[in-house]
Amino acid sequence: MDQARSTITKIFNGTEGTYTRFLTQNMEEDSSHVEMKLSSDVDEEVEGNGVADNGKHHYARPAYVSKPGLCNPRNIFIAVTVAILISFLIGLLIGSNMYKRSTEEGSSSCKTSFTPSSAPSDDEVIPIETVPSLDWSDITALLKRKLTTSGIETSLREFSSDSHQAGSAGDELLANKVLTKFKDNGMEPWLDTHYVKVQDRPASGVNKVTFRGNTFSEPGYLSYSATGTVQGAVLYAYYGQEDDLRRLQDIGIDMSERVLLIRAGKISYAEKVANAAKVNASAVLIYPDPADYPFAENVDLLGHVHLGSGDPYTPGFPSFNHTQFPPAKSSGLPSIPAQTIRASTAAAIMREMEGRSPPHGWANGGLQDYKLGSTNDNVSVEVNNLLTEIQIHNVFGVVKGFIDPDRYVVIGAQRDAWGAGFAKSTVGTSLLVELARVISSMVHEDGFKPRRSIVFASWSAGEYGAVGATEWLEGYLPSLNMKAFSYISLDGVVAGSENFKASASPLMYDLIQSTSKEVSLPTDPKKTIFAQAGSNFETNVMEPMRMDDPAYPFLTFSGIPSVSFRFTQDKPYPFFGTLLDTRSNLESKASNLPALIKAAGEMAGQMALRLVHDHLLRLNTEKYLNIMRLQVSKINKEVMSLQRSGRLPKTLQMKWLMSALGSYGRASRNLISTIQNSDLDDIEQCRIINDRIMGVERDLLSPYVSPMETPFRHILLGSGWCTVQDVLTQLAVIREGVVGANTDLLKNQFALTTWTIQSCANALVGNVWDMDNEI
């Protein structure tokens, strides 16, 4: 407008050689700009279609020549009229453009407030948001409003089933229901089909246990047990933990060729059988002690004893479409028979057992008598389980991201179960379907535009050891551990109402904690889950992830940061792995069930939404530094002690491992500094940083072992000789002077552990020219 006034002034003053030119940008670009260029330099004007140089561009412009009579009153009047008209049109255009912009902002789902001080100036270029998104408060409010207890109840009724064992017609029916639900949400779902080997009950009859002339037929069973008939003297071994068996050894009991009678609980069935095999036991009998399992004495236990996950007959590779693979077996398959027996059977055996009394505390169960057993208490165990091949289907749906659609978080739930499996599978499947519906609705109806994608997965054959999920991981491992940045498990999310517990990758600890501050307790809506946990959240809530956790293969086999969580009681939910896992029994342990499921859905949903909404992934690499320091400190203490006593040579030095630890610490701090100095509106920069964060979990998988032999090769959280924990085990073996202690193996473990940590640090740094070469 100042230029317009200047033009009018010059016209009234009769300035010669004056011209006015308007350059108006496309109004649809929402950045209209009006330029009025003035000049009185007659020398720059060229007769005809001249071209003038403004220093940057050449504009073709008409020539204006002073002519007599230009300043006569008629011409002045015309000029003034034109100038006023031009000024009016300029104001009209600016006003129209500002109205258009304010209207679009008012109707947009992204709520932005403008104040006079923050309003853009005429010369400012207004940035265009690539993917408009809701504020975080809007996102969480939508999730809580749309995820309703009534919707959860509807899903619970629809997906409840008394018969949906993996590979059965009932399992396939539920798979089709999930597929239909995903289609209804506009998710373009797909199936992942596998042919896997599982071990079922005998085709005819049952497995048997015979003691002192009495034969007990046992309908329960443990899949993947060794088969056949074995005999041996029965020995009570408490929970069958390594410490329990070591305690028996300390009192001079030889467990070789003994049949161990073990209480269910504390650790998985597979770990109990593996521990028994290590001490050369001939078989294992597992029973539910009434002190731990408050149900009738004739209830059967069902489970599996594969010390691993997935199809144990295709270890490390997928079982697609009857593909012919070389004969192979998982190293986690047991070499001895294992059978579950009812509490009544255990009581009958225990009453007839002889021998000494058990160690202090071992007789605290619900049976009348507890004896360790003598070498004359012979028992016969007959296991005739049948190995069969079944077809299973994993069902998937996806909500695609708008910036990085090829990066995704996976939310998954087991669909199959022995019997009703209400807490084990129905709750998780129902919640999975509801979260898929709600988040799809937020995208299609409410303008939510996630940066990254969310994959919803319904797994089959979970009862046999996360078979469906592990086969999928094995089939797509090269892609998954590069692009799947988190896994959230919905299995067993409600098993009580008193406490909240979680198991996760340390990278996700901060995310779990911050989310718990936003979710109210279903038992007391005025308090959050975080408030209930007390002052030390990690100590009171976080638990180590066990091998039988459904998220374990994602974390330790695939290197994907993972989390599982649950509302629970002080005592474990007793109905898992039984036919008593029904809604009524779950409600006896968890009152106000729909509210609990909704709270679990808010936890899972908000963690997933936070991961796909923020510019940078909410994964804290510093957490692993603390764990590394703790483990290295333990190793250093052991090494120093053994070297002082002469049991370990001085050539084994800690400085290289310490150096690798320092490299990781510097790389982690460098990443934090990079984040603080980065432009979060730079999409490519954010993607580069996120890729560095995603690589940490993957790079902690040992590259020096085969996934076929050692699938859980995460050096800090996995299982096998490649782990830091096994380094400590080898040091303990040397300290105790056990025959066969291998110093050379320990040196190899040191070297490989050092280079795995150093490689992780190098990858975290990013560019090859920025890597730490001090080691």
* H/I helix tally: 22
CATH architecture of the largest domain: 3-Layer(aba) Sandwich
The main sheet comes to: 8 strands, mixed
Poorly predicted segments: 1-71, 98-129
Give helix % range: 25-40%
What is the number of strand segments?
Answer: 21
Fourth-tier CATH superfamily name of the largest domain: Zn peptidases
CATH topology of the largest domain, by name, is Aminopeptidase
Structural class: alpha/beta
Estimate the strand proportion: 15-25%
In the CATH scheme, the class of the largest domain would be Alpha Beta
Rounded average pLDDT: 85
Strand order within the widest beta sheet:
5-15-17-16-18-21-19-20
Description:
By secondary structure, this protein is α/β, with parallel strands linked by helices. The chain folds into four domains: about 1-105, no CATH class; about 145-200 and about 390-615, Aminopeptidase (3-Layer(aba) Sandwich); about 205-385, Glucose Oxidase, domain 1 (3-Layer(bba) Sandwich), CATH 3.50.30; about 620-770, Transferrin receptor-like, dimerisation domain (Transcription Elongation Factor S-II, Chain A), CATH 1.20.930.40. It is built from 22 helices and 21 strands. The strands form five sheets. An eight-stranded mixed sheet has the order 5-15-17-16-18-21-19-20, sandwiched between helices. Helix 1 runs antiparallel to helix 2 (about 75-105). The radius of gyration is 35 Å and the shape is globular. Homodimer; disulfide-linked.
